[in-house]
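Quick one:
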Amino acid sequence: MSYKFNLRSQFDSIMLMTNELIEELKQLESPYCSFYHIPPVLTKDEQTIRNEIIIKPYFADHAFNQCCQSLTHVYREHEHSGRVLNRYPGIIAVNTQNPSDLINRINQINQAKLAFKNMILKIGNNDSRFEAVHNAIPNVLTLAVYRQIHFEQNKPFSVRFTWMHKHSIKTFTKAEAITLLKNSENYGVTNKINAEAWRALVNKELHRVSSLSDKEKLRIRRPTPVSPQVNVRFDAKNRYHVSAALPFILINPSEDVKLGHLTDYYKKETDPRTIKRESLVERLFLQRY
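Output:
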């Protein structure tokens, strides 16, 4: 069978189970529900790091509806970035006499999502994967389908939100960095710089990296957009955090559980004591390790 058929079948299975989960949640008592709308990043702004994010909170029935809808938000919307995906933080607290049934449903969905991801990763290179996925499921946001649904059933002391700053880090040898730069000669930003100026820029970068010791360790430390996370705490030593890309499901919570709110994000001023590393290639965030 073709990739197209397999991917579409697996995707349809995920969406069917997710909709069944939503219907199950609607049948349960929900003592608390929150949802925090984050303004989406537009395609024209996806290269810009946001210094502030003003959220809009919802609670009770309105929040519940928003949370349920977000579980199936996997298609790209007009003018919204396909690279910087929107997050849908929230908490759905539910009471059920059969928690194992609900947990099994969520685990089935998460396993199906992992299977979908593994099917895609077995397809050639990135270009082949993109073509195969979008031929099977036009306009889908692949990473949005991958998102796991997180839950907790063991009565934590608190469930709160924070904003997380992350960096994508990849290490290189000098030779690997030179190969990367040579390959980049073929991918100039044609709308901002002409081919001759681009080659001159890359040659200057190559000269800078070539002058390093062969034993020099290098890395690309690229900042990623700030994102919300859920912090689950049982006691001082027993805690964990997970992504808040989707609403967090809290099963049979205790009546006195502490539930936090996601607040607006404002980028903090850089600590003057922070040592800033000089980039060897600023556009690639390439620096000495």
